TrEMBL record, chain A:
Residues 19-206 form the Isochorismatase-like domain. It comes from Micromonospora radicis. PANTHER family: FAMILY HYDROLASE, PUTATIVE (AFU_ORTHOLOGUE AFUA_2G08700)-RELATED, PEROXYUREIDOACRYLATE/UREIDOACRYLATE AMIDOHYDROLASE-RELATED. Residues 86-97 have a biased composition (Basic and acidic residues). The lineage of its organism: Bacteria, Bacillati, Actinomycetota, Actinomycetes, Micromonosporales. GO terms for molecular function: hydrolase activity. InterPro entries: Isochorismatase-like_dom, Isochorismatase-like_hydrls, Isochorismatase-like_sf. This is Cysteine hydrolase. The keyword Zinc-finger does not apply. The keyword Lipid biosynthesis does not apply. It holds the Pfam family Isochorismatase. Keywords: Hydrolase. Signal peptide: none annotated.
UniProtKB/TrEMBL annotation, chain B:
Keywords: Hydrolase. GO terms for molecular function: hydrolase activity. The keyword Zinc-finger does not apply. This is Cysteine hydrolase. Signal peptide: none annotated. Residues 25-213 form the Isochorismatase-like domain.
Amino acid sequence: MPTITAARPAAYAFDLHTTALLVIDMQRDFLEPGGFGESLGNDVGQLRRTIGPLTALLAGARAAGLTVLHTREGHLPDLSDCPPAKLERGAPSRRIGDPGPNGRILIRGEYGHDIVDELAPLPGEPVIDKPGKGAFYATGLDELLAERNVRSLLVTGVTTEVCVHTTVREANDRGYECLVLADCVGSYFPEFQRVGLDMIAAQGGIFGWVADSMDVLAVLPTTPVLQPSS
Amino acid sequence: MGSIGPVTANPYPWPYDGVVDTARTAVLCIDWQTDFCGPGGYVDTMGYDISLTRAGLPATARLLAHVRSLGMLVVHTREGHDPDLSDLPANKRWRSARIGAEIGGAGPCGRILVRGEPGWEIVPEVAPVPGEVVVDKPGKGAFYATNLDLVLRTRGITHLILTGITTDVCVHTTMREANDRGYECLILSDCTGATDKGNHDAALHMVTMQGGVFGCVATSDDVIAATTE
């Protein structure tokens, strides 16, 4: 089994047949100017540094034949799946559903809601649309992973302390072994990037493991592993 | 029935909808168990300073006395596993063993984090009173693999006030789950605690960012001052 000895708090071993790469919310609304992230006053440049390493990791995972899954946070055009507490809270310059330069903010089907070009899903790669921060709540992710016999998740995406953390916490409670890739997750706030990663690996790895994408690429095969027939 | 709000809170006066009926608000007491804050429990066995996880007990006890007098719903949670460990994920068991406190193993307060053992019980300072709901959970989050969501919706609860331990692990996971489910959440800084003070502070700070991405932070005094009978 491939093993990442540099992972903290301890070595992380994973079976290629039961491991998936999870790419969380790499959407224009969070990563590009004019989107939801910027409307909350954030510097989207803090997130864009993840695109390079994640592009390389995505290529490596596809070459090795790993299951690749993408998530997108967003709501139905009539906002029927957006809790009032989420919609009305705070005072952003644009609320969910408001028009913006990339279409209505965080609305499914709009240009800004989709994944950035560099990381566009390939045909056949599942894309999970989620109404919340966590990718397991009100989605079919858990069932989809079970169907594919996935037990380990290589976790990437944005933002580290919000959607990545919530999803890792959900996955961990469900028994998945999560390896979070530090250079492929990003936060608008450097402090939260650091402490968010520390919290994952604290107390003996209470939520999972942390490593860098190069550590994964170094142990991935460059030709597809044969998936067991079902 | 009384009302609550607006509570002086960070980053906005809580709740978002101004004032809420106390009948629609519940206080969550998360994992105030001997295993997490008592001598000889799981956290003590791992070598952490339990004065940090006990710090929120007096304020929580005072808050409970107040909200009970108003007739508010109080829900307690307990993290733990069946005695046969059939609901214990392999990686969770492995990790706990690695740091010297294997779940299911024998400890000074009985088998660690096993339902029915002395260490798994809620400490007396904030123990449930008859009529209060107790939810047993196998994970960090109180919504996964439990009936919590059903109980809250059945009672008509829309707003949650969170206390308990530890701030960055079980309280935060539960707050994130509640927030995704549409509950308007308030976490109390003086009624929570963590094994690491830095993680306690960071977890509270995270809540307040981006206009209150998971809800708000306040103190028990702020809540008590904002309730009317």
